[in-house]
Design a protein that fits this description.
The chain has 422 residues and is α/β, with parallel strands linked by helices. Helices cover 44% and strands 17% of the residues. The protein is globular. It binds glutamic acid (GLU).
Length: 422
């Protein structure tokens, strides 16, 4: 049956369509369905900021708490010019399902500010972050809602959030955010965590499909935190990285890239990726998605694989490092092509899993070795992969719908146990 969405490029509509599909398959009770369809809370904040030239600018920011049923809200803060409330809503709901897929005790939330961090000074970013945090003081906190980095934000931004919140509380509260610098209560392995999780589920997928690492050509769209870390860890493990891209464009090279050299070029020297002197055919970042490979990893933004282009994808495995890179109508095409999909709410859950470890360590005031973090992450990712794939096979659904079904079932069960307070 084809998937119906009116506007496939509206991420919230896509998130709703998948929720509805999975809820129907699950036979979710009407009342639970009605409860879980809506976010718990949506906060819009107008953030006045004095810019470096003395002008006052007012930015629009959001925090959406989709669900607090299984624990405090959890999810990143995104700084980007095209942030919309619908996008933050969709991302918040994906956090709920993601945390439930890997079975960590959090709900789902997401924040965003419409701004262009590339065009702002560090001081402007700091003032904007602090004002946004101050406005959110009543809604965030270790027991309420715990932000983290996402597109356009990083450890430094998390340090400002932590400091601002702590000043209002009159004591240091490290567990209010995750993805912090190591010296401020961050966790070892958090920076690499999403890429490492991607690596673990790729290992599981090729094992299941009877493929070998050395025979796997990997194409990665996006070279930010997730894309570059996935590239590094996969190449260290013996996979061949044949395609890479950033916002400036992509490069494809059948012989494989020297990934540390690409990382040094892009992150060390801050040069555009397509100018990397190590060889390869230059192409637009989106074209890279259609090059031949065994594993395709979109690790940039939403809506990259759609009904208009899914037929051009030439991969055996699609591993979603980004949130929402594939639309529901594109899923239908990929299913018909026999692509093995590792859906975002499973594939990129390594980040939030180590965020959970960071929150636990902060609250205990006791910090783990990196090997301990990575081992625990491996356990979580492998167990989640097995649960989702087994569920998909036994229920005759694809991996994505299986992940939604498992997640919705867990949240609905918790909700039933809690009951409705009215
Ligand atoms: N922004 C990341 C995500 O989309 C991490 C969220 C977190 O660690 O809370 O999963």
């Amino acid at each position: 049956m084809p998937t119906l969405v009116k506007n496939e490029l509206n991420v919230y509509e896509c998130a709703e369509a998948r929720f509805e599909m999975a809820a129907a398959k699950l036979g979710l009770e009407d009342d639970l369905y009605r409860y879980l369809r809506f976010p718990n809370k949506e906060i819009t904040i107008y953030i006045p900021v004095t810019m470096d030239d003395g002008r006052l600018e007012v930015f629009t920011g959001y925090r959406v708490q989709h669900s607090l049923v299984r624990g405090p809200g959890k999810g990143g803060i995104r700084y980007a010019p095209d942030v919309t409330l619908d996008e933050v809503r969709a991302l918040a709901s994906w956090m709920t399902w993601k945390c439930a897929v890997v079975n960590i005790p959090f709900g789902g939330a997401k924040g965003g500010i419409i701004c262009d961090p590339q065009k702002m000074s560090q001081k402007e970013l700091e003032r904007m972050t602090r004002r946004y945090t101050a406005e959110l003081t009543d809604w965030i906190g270790p027991e309420r809602d715990v932000p983290a980095p996402d597109l356009g934000t990083n450890e430094k931004v998390m340090a400002w959030v932590m400091d601002t919140y702590s000043m209002h509380m009159r004591h240091t509260v490290t567990a209010v955010v995750t993805g912090k610098p190591l010296d401020l209560g961050g966790s070892r392995g958090r920076r690499e965590a999403t890429g490492r999780g991607v690596h673990f589920v790729c290992d599981k997928a090729i094992e299941k499909l009877g493929m070998k690492r050395e025979e796997c050509r990997v194409v990665i769209q996006g070279f930010g935190n997730v894309g570059s870390m996935a590239a590094m860890l996969l190449s260290e493990a013996g996979y061949k990285i044949v395609g890479v891209s950033d916002i400036h464009g992509g490069l494809y090279n059948e012989n494989g890239f020297n990934v540390p050299a690409v990382i040094e070029w892009v992150h060390g020297q801050r040069k555009p990726l397509p100018d990397f002197p190590g060889g390869g055919a230059k192409m637009a970042g989106q074209e890279l998605l259609f090059q031949p490979c065994e594993i395709l990893i979109p690790a940039a933004i939403e809506n990259q694989i759609t009904s208009a282009n899914a037929h051009r994808v030439q991969t055996r495995i699609l591993c979603e490092g980004a949130n929402g890179p594939t639309t529901p109508p594109a899923d239908d095409v990929l299913r018909d092509k026999g692509v093995f999909v590792l859906p975002d709410i499973l594939a990129n859950a390594g980040g939030v899993t180590v965020s959970y470890f960071e929150w636990v360590q902060d609250r205990q005031g006791f910090f783990w070795r990196e090997s301990e973090v990575n081992e625990r992450l491996k356990d979580v990712m492998e167990r989640s992969f097995d649960e989702i794939v087994r569920y998909a096979e036994s229920h005759g659904v694809n991996n994505r719908i299986a992940a939604y079904m498992v997640a919705i079932d867990r949240v609905a069960f918790a909700l039933k146990l809690r009951g409705l307070y009215a």
